[in-house]
Amino acid sequence: MRSLIDITDFSVEELDGLLHTACDIIENPAKYADSCRRKKLATLFFEPSTRTRLSFEAAMLELGGSVIGFSQASSSSASKGESMADTAKILSCYADIMAIRHPLEGAPYVAARNTSVPVINAGDGGHCHPTQTLADLLTIYREEGRLNNLTVGCCGDLKYGRTVHSLLAALSRYENIKVVLISPEELRLPGYVKYEVLDGKGISYEETTSLEEAIPQLDVLYMTRIQRERFDDLETYEHLKDSYILTPEKMQAAKSTMRVLHPLPRVNEISVKVDADPRAAYFRQALNGKYMRMALILKLLDEAKKGVQMPEPEDVLVDRLHCDNPRCICTTEQELEHMFKCVDKERRIYRCIYCEAKKTLED
Ligand code: NCD
Predict the structure, then answer these.
(1) Ligand 1, CB within 6 Å, residue ranges
(2) Does the active-site annotation cover 101?
(3) Mean pLDDT, residues 120-138
């Protein structure tokens, strides 16, 4: 079934369609109150979450549907060693649609390939988080009135922050977007996002370590948390954790129309004193997430009813190349075929279909 695994699974027209539905839901909530009557959403959360899981649940309830699921791996049979594929097959017996968060990259995609209902990626390791991007897009659209002609600064943990990876993939498809990447040297944006997403779409970007220098030119400042749980060594985390703290003093140098976004949870990277600034949009952003998830559930259930299928990856090698990314689902999933898809024919470069690992095909 059609699923949402990566934000680029949807065209810009489809993203605009979701924004349009979300705005209609905001204006006419009663119209949608019974749209998902007798439909069930399963939330399979193998990693902690507040906003994403509860906004999915609230979204389904406000559409008149119901919700089943679990909020930690230890309360599912995964703790007994059940594979992602089996878990997904079982859940499709009980639910019409499922949202999955997992610490391993590609886990929701394995689920989508093994189930007969739509799957939504609610965050896979440090890889992507497409539904947070939906919340971000609606927030930028409602606050700035446009998704084109914007200078967007992303600040903090750009290496492990999956929300930034998905947001840049989405924004790079709009017109006249400029990006400022603000991070410590150690937490710079991964090469694949820089070269394939930004360079690939001709997006102009600069990298800096200074928030103060970057802030005056920004229309949107997207703050992120340093992702403690993704560090192999906690000493490095301790050294980097206070890299950026947004304060009212720093906000003085920003445009009066700039908006501050943050996927939340915040640790200390935005002073609580900034909350009263009308430019602080992060709590409104959390509310927008619910509306976009409502629009998404409606779209995927409608496509499931019409029998729309997820496209099969083309030009794929099965078990000829081996994915050795320790954060990929390939490392744990029982008998999962290692599949690589051609991304550069001339140089014979292939990418793991579950994560971003690349391999060159030797003769
Ligand atoms: C983000 C996530 O889980 O990646 N949170 C969220 O979904 N709103 C950001 C984070 O955890 O830092």
Answers:
(1) 51-52, 123, 129, 132, 162-163, 225, 263-264
(2) yes
(3) 97
99 and 157 assigned to the same domain: no
Q: Phi, psi at residue 222, to the nearest 5°?
A: -105, 100
Is 127 annotated in the active site? Answer: no
Catalytic site includes residue 151: no
Cα angle 4, 130, 15 (rounded to 5 degrees) comes to 75
Give this prediction's pTM.
0.97
Domain count, the chain: 3
Centroid of ligand 1 to alpha carbon of 263 (angstroms): 6
The predicted model gives 244-259 an average pLDDT of: 98
CATH number at residue 325: 2.30.30
Residue 264 shares a structural domain with residue 184: yes
Closest ligand 1 atom to Cα of 129: 4
Q: Which pLDDT tens digit goes with each residue over 196-217?
A: 999 999 999 999 999 999 999 9
CATH number for 187 = 3.40.50.1370
CA of 262 to the centre of ligand 1 (A): 9
- 137 lies in some domain: no
Residue 322 within any structural domain of the chain: yes
For residue 264, the CA-to-ligand 1 centroid distance in Å is 6
For residues 54 and 164, state if they share a domain.
no
Q: What is the pLDDT of residue 267?
A: 95
Amino acid at 146: R
Strand order in the sheet with 66-70: 66-70, 40-45, 97-102, 119-124
Q: How far apart are CA 341 and CA 360, in angstroms?
A: 11
